Description:
The structure is a homodimer of 679-residue chains. The first copy, chain A, is of the alpha+beta class. Chain A folds into 3 domains: 49-165, Acyl-CoA dehydrogenase/oxidase, N-terminal domain (Butyryl-Coa Dehydrogenase, subunit A, domain 1); 170-315, Butyryl-CoA Dehydrogenase, subunit A, domain 2; 319-474 and 498-669, Up-down Bundle (Butyryl-CoA Dehydrogenase, subunit A, domain 3), CATH 1.20.140.10. Helix content of chain A is 54%, strand content 10%. In chain A, helix 10 runs antiparallel to helix 11 (364-396), helix 11 crosses helix 20 and helix 12 packs antiparallel against helix 13.
Amino acid sequence: xxxxxxxxxxxxxxxxxxxxxxxxxxxxxxxxxxxxxxxxxxxxxxxxxxxxxxxxxxxxxxxxxxxxxxxxxxxxxxxxxxxxxxxxxxxxxxxxxxxxxxxxxxxxxxxxxxxxxxxxxxxxxxxxxxxxxxxxxxxxxxxxxxxxxxxxxxxxxxxxxxxxxxxxxxxxxxxxxxxxxxxxxxxxxxxxxxxxxxxxxxxxxxxxxxxxxxxxxxxxxxxxxxxxxxxxxxxxxxxxxxxxxxxxxxxxxxxxxxxxxxxxxxxxxxxxxxxxxxxxxxxxxxxxxxxxxxxxxxxxxxxxxxxxxxxxxxxxxxxxxxxxxxxxxxxxxxxxxxxxxxxxxxxxxxxxxxxxxxxxxxxxxxxxxxxxxxxxxxxxxxxxxxxxxxxxxxxxxxxxxxxxxxxxxxxxxxxxxxxxxxxxxxxxxxxxxxxxxxxxxxxxxxxxxxxxxxxxxxxxxxxxxxxxxxxxxxxxxxxxxxxxxxxxxxxxxxxxxxxxxxxxxxxxxxxxxxxxxxxxxxxxxxxxxxxxxxxxxxxxxxxxxxxxxxxxxxxxxxxxxxxxxxxxxxxxxxxxxxxxxxxxxxxxxxxxxxxxxxxxxxxxxxxxxxxxxxxxxxxxxxxxxxxxxxxxxxxxxxxxxxxxxxxxxxxxxxxxxxxxxxxxxxxxxxxxxxxxxxx
Amino acid sequence: xxxxxxxxxxxxxxxxxxxxxxxxxxxxxxxxxxxxxxxxxxxxxxxxxxxxxxxxxxxxxxxxxxxxxxxxxxxxxxxxxxxxxxxxxxxxxxxxxxxxxxxxxxxxxxxxxxxxxxxxxxxxxxxxxxxxxxxxxxxxxxxxxxxxxxxxxxxxxxxxxxxxxxxxxxxxxxxxxxxxxxxxxxxxxxxxxxxxxxxxxxxxxxxxxxxxxxxxxxxxxxxxxxxxxxxxxxxxxxxxxxxxxxxxxxxxxxxxxxxxxxxxxxxxxxxxxxxxxxxxxxxxxxxxxxxxxxxxxxxxxxxxxxxxxxxxxxxxxxxxxxxxxxxxxxxxxxxxxxxxxxxxxxxxxxxxxxxxxxxxxxxxxxxxxxxxxxxxxxxxxxxxxxxxxxxxxxxxxxxxxxxxxxxxxxxxxxxxxxxxxxxxxxxxxxxxxxxxxxxxxxxxxxxxxxxxxxxxxxxxxxxxxxxxxxxxxxxxxxxxxxxxxxxxxxxxxxxxxxxxxxxxxxxxxxxxxxxxxxxxxxxxxxxxxxxxxxxxxxxxxxxxxxxxxxxxxxxxxxxxxxxxxxxxxxxxxxxxxxxxxxxxxxxxxxxxxxxxxxxxxxxxxxxxxxxxxxxxxxxxxxxxxxxxxxxxxxxxxxxxxxxxxxxxxxxxxxxxxxxxxxxxxxxxxxxxxxxxxxx
Lengths: 679, 679
């Protein structure tokens, strides 16, 4: 054995600490087992207001409305499929009546005219039944959003008021069975017939049926259908056309509708499939903000490139991704609240002195399972706040420049991926941490787990989204983003050889910031000199990783292409590196959001508490990838172990206030649905 | 930057490879992108026979029976709760008629008299509807097993034949709402009344109700009830008594039954809650293999210690854990089959040359997501084969010594934990890898995911089970196992100070084996000299980790207790280390099982293929914990990167035969229920 392994008492893999290692570098976890005498006193309502941010009133209003419908959570267990769907529809229409669902639509049509408020409202809906949330997203975000963003005044005048009120329910029909992520290549056709001034919509074969379309199986009357437009024999790429799919409850002529049937979750949403057999709709039904067809059949658009036009259209729909990411993060809050409160009252084993039982949350392992996830939930909350604010800014100013839009799209994609993966992980861990009781439908985990599972793949598969993020990083958002097939990483990779990629990226800018911020100041010692709890150190580590990965992946692509590899093979060989790079980038943004937010906070115990959480989030993030940092010379073995030990110490410090920290999420008790777990 | 980070092209976190690093140590992943010219030719039926092992005929028979009932998979989506339960009951009774379910019960009562065969049959049931599997487990394993193992001939004569035929359905009523894992402290009481020669069963308060009890809500007539026995005013600990709970479909007098209602999954099983209000049953209903009460009220038992007696009883029920572990591993095979076959036919993106699209499984990231999990599924299959064989041996020889029993209990606990966590992870990853289609109930993932989720917490919470494994390691199974409260790690920890723990454990035996096996032979160079694909090297790494962790955790406990820490605090501070140690131990057993099994295989392409899988499993296991190995001086940065690169190369080598490798699981096509995914 080496000297190191012989002398040190081993940490337990990724979760151990090192109480018996030298005192100067590694804190003693037992030193903090008991709450410090100066235990933090958290003003929960004040922390809630801080978390609720600029749209606190909207969030509070939605909480109240959800409590009105809290019974739905239990009823959903026993309602048949159609009854559940109708019940959800009724709740959605009722919510629409209160104004809670159409905050993103213009005021002149009965909406709220405030995109930021609409995201806040939607996120808060995640505290309630998630079929309601999803149906709201389909109706007001996707369907209403498409008509608003891709249509022009005539479309708005004709439909938006009825959409906002819930009188007119509709679908967003983009995805086809044969084309999940690759939407530029969908195969439904819309051929313009100048003799009747109509578009003729056709589903050429079964793989081109529209699939998984919300509102299609039962309630939708209209659908925004994405189809390949052909005018006078010429192909113009994907465009959006409004098609009536259901009249008086029956499928419209030429439209075939099939029910997707029971799903793992979200069974209150009526997903369906659509086929079009020569369905004719008037010329005016084409959403013509970015391109139009004249009565006599002349196609025109201000955007010349077909690909660019399509991605301009898609770009306007970024709100859907921001919404789903936020929904995931807020669903995670529900699970965290139940699991932390359960662990803070449940006594399972006899421990400590005879007759006194420790609470579950007093156990090191239980803290390790829950508290870094709690810290990450806070971090993602603040990251989501940034992306929601960006969305509001870009979409509230019609002249937002293209780079802002691209940065927003990238940030939305990355936050959606990390937020929804976090939801899946948190809900699973919290379910297990509540034992068998978590499996019963009478506790909320069953529904939370089943309903959120698809978040990782809808509104863009998370892996595909991270590829999009990586593409932006590799071009510094300066070119090729909108012009490219969104999913054509392969062509992109093949094309990279012609440029000197490294010079186009911002690979050395972040390192400059590291050197400026940290005490050592030189390239070689900033990491070993800084304190583990210094946010500049924590950020420097994540910035270093991101930079190094961007440079590395660019060099690998270039090297392999230069050596004659074809695009497909090269991309296949670097794909995991590409995705890891994007993830490293988003992780850095998340930590920055948390650190920045802390600086805005007034001094007090709440700030101290959030500092603990931020440290816990930062160090557990570094710890999770400590192998990489060691492999790249940024962590010594001693320092790596010290980080693990510090994470344990932070868990113990957070433990006494963990109940307050979940209470601050302010998930109404009626919605927790965890009677048998937390009373 | 250090020299290392400046010169090497970075691997992508935990998933990257290192194509541009020096050639001598790191393979070029592109070298193996295309199938080798000598592509392996796998004889799938022959590989299936190898996997099916000694009970191949039983497995084949159960496959056929499941195909007979394949319609149930789809029907389950639309049946109401009670109809689904009744349908599952009917299928279970029909299966009982074929002899497929009672292979573990004695021949003289219509069973198969073969424990190994009964495990093989049960595992195979995991290919079908998992409510059927679970109800079979409740009826024949838990209920029938308890009467068989805890009862004596009179009980067997009275009940086993009816149980084996499915004429008499019953419950295993141990868990209480207030005591999930801590079953020694359940609170239901059974007081002996010598005047009537009856036991009087009482639920003293709501937290002592029996909870989550399968067969209780609708079908069960009898229940084996675990209760605190009181005879003549004296407490004797937990004993099992057979109680009629339902007569002609109505609750028996004094018994209150409540339905647990809808669950996240397994809704074909009628879980319920039971309360007893002074229910009287004859003295003969006590299962008296380990203790009895005479008519006049004299308690006697051959086992003096109350704790030891209880854990002897529990020990006889180890078959349940072996069964659940095997069910998890086999459910994972279903998911792997669908996801690999889907990825082997689905073309998503345009790639490669113009017009040719690569298959999903040609992408590096997709290989990384699926193929190490496929390798691990094989590894766990062979580990399960070992534990099933151990079970058969111990339970077929009435004189098996106590150490064999303890080793079996430990191995069963560990394999159950890793096998069920694997199922959860595999099913989630495979669901996501099939995109939105994986979310529809019409594909099998929805049911698989929902139904298997509880496997990680039932038949023993996985974390608690790993604590049990650790306890065995720390005492070398030589003492304190059966005598202790199964969950009393805290008392155990406090007691450890009195002994010199290290000398009791086998901490240095494994290291001896490392030194014998590897070329360097010395303590310092065995790891750097050996080839990455040498199984002795791979095993040495896992053995080193296990030993080091056992020693470390023992030293930490002893050190902290010696410094005056109380049991609860010390245990809380080492709990994660304890669990990581147990996991390291089980990981070593799993790899050993795979390596040992390979040695028994005839030469041929199938053996070459399984060698690739074994290497992939071993190296991805080491890679997952490479931070630990670096921290403990057993991996250099270069070698750590080389392992990551080798894992990528192995993925590419396994890719062409991945379809054959899942076909070898021989999950009948009718049971895959993935029409829209794989046709």
